[in-house]
Amino acid sequence: MSDESAADFAGEPDGFERLWTPHRMVYIEGENKPPDGTPETCPFCRIPTNDDETGLLVHRDELAFVVLNLYPYSPGHVLVCPYRHVADYTDLTEDERIAVGRLTAQSMSVLRQVSAPHGFNLGINQGAVAGAGIAAHLHQHVVPRWAGDGNFLPVIGQTKAIPQLLGDTWRLLHKAWPQVADRTDPGHPLTEQGVS
Question: Is 77 noted as a catalytic residue in this protein?
């Protein structure tokens, strides 16, 4: 045990406490990022080949799917991905754009039911220069937000506190999807019969 003061170490004393988050280093160093842009190495192409729980896949549709973000900004942060390996929004077919839009709306409905967020950030980071971590496979972010969730940690500590385990979030969303999201789909038989 050392009696050394923190002031004896490199760096300027600044009065800030440090919240160490070494588990984030694997993401920063590129864990799970594909070595190239091919479908063979793409995690978004691989995820649908797993069972839902292993892949954190919340919902499967005909042309697209919803998966939990492995490195979420907040609990319930999901990604809406087309099955087809395309990099640019303009490469999607009209049906794929409709599917991505429908699943984005359904994701918001399910998240409102499960987590009662106060708002959402929705977005597609188109290309690596725009912030896409995996630029070769298009994906839409649906990030639930709560008043006050942008507290001091991200501003000062460059750290996000995620208060829910991914497995717990997956179970809640996966269970709620059939009861909530399908009823918001205008083409769903229960909606057409007037049941909601």
Answer: no
